[in-house]
Amino acid sequence: MKLYVVDDDKNIQNILKMIIRDRALGTLCGIASNGADALEDMPVLKPDIVIVDLLMPEMDGITFVKKARTLLPSTAFIMLSQVASKDMIAGAYESGIEFYIQKPINSVEVETVVRKVGQSLSAQRTLMQVQNLFTSQQPAGIQPASPSSLSQERPHIVRLKGILQKLGIIGERGSRDIIQLVDYLVEHNINIGEATLTELCSNFSDNPKSVEQRIRRSASAGMVNLANLGLEDYSNDTFTTYANTLYNFEQVRREMDYIRGKGSRHGNVKIKSFLNALMVACLEP
């Protein structure tokens, strides 16, 4: 993956450069201190992922992303900012970014997000290759579904994917199962306490045990990511929002102690409580 950084702060540039290099996240193909210079580089360098600051002089990050996406629509954008305003964050997502990371920079969060965005890009490109192959083999008169119709998703699915992105598990195989299960519960207005997880999974899979195992692994991975975020920045917005809603905070603290070598046991995830909290969160207006 080729990465490009747009930030007017030299310290942030250097920190991102070290994270990309030390954690082998890809090739840093360019750095710019402002949006105008970056827009000149985009068509030549063709980065896969652009990490851009929200607040920059002359051209803010949202304006930059809107312009850059017209040049390279298949490039993914990750935005950085100290701003915690919900309206600003919503505007950033509306401009077309994949993920929003709040400063100060957390190396674990940056690595997790970049890897997941990279995996998502690879999956999208593979899908496009398959769709192109399918289109080329279509009989005359049959039109494939347009990309816009395929990309239209219901609001609760969009919100659910955003939460899974923040947990750093959107690229996990189990995340697709989580999305499918939560969607099934929402669409059929089912109380998750009325059946076992295996019974629920059997409604949309011939191998419910495997689905259940993937969901458990992904939920546990989300707790590990949250624990790491908490260790690096206890006030991290993602950590404070989800450590005590999607998970039991005492169990997240246990996972943090395990990571620091102060405990012998991992934190425990109550899967049905996790899924129920996800369902509630993605239905919030």
TrEMBL record:
Q: Which residues form the Response regulatory domain?
A: 2-118
The alphabetical list of record keywords is:
Phosphoprotein
**4-aspartylphosphate-modified residues are where?**
53
Q: Does the keyword Phosphoprotein apply?
A: yes
Show the SUPFAM superfamilies listed in the entry.
CheY-like
The protein's matches in InterPro entries, at most eight in alphabetical order, are given as: CheY-like_superfamily, Sig_transdc_resp-reg_receiver, ST_Response_Regulator, YcbB
* Family matches, as Gene3D superfamilies: 3.40.50.2300
General function of this protein: May play the central regulatory role in sporulation. It may be an element of the effector pathway responsible for the activation of sporulation genes in response to nutritional stress. Spo0A may act in concert with spo0H (a sigma factor) to control the expression of some genes that are critical to the sporulation process.
Q: What is this protein identified as?
A: Stage 0 sporulation protein A homolog
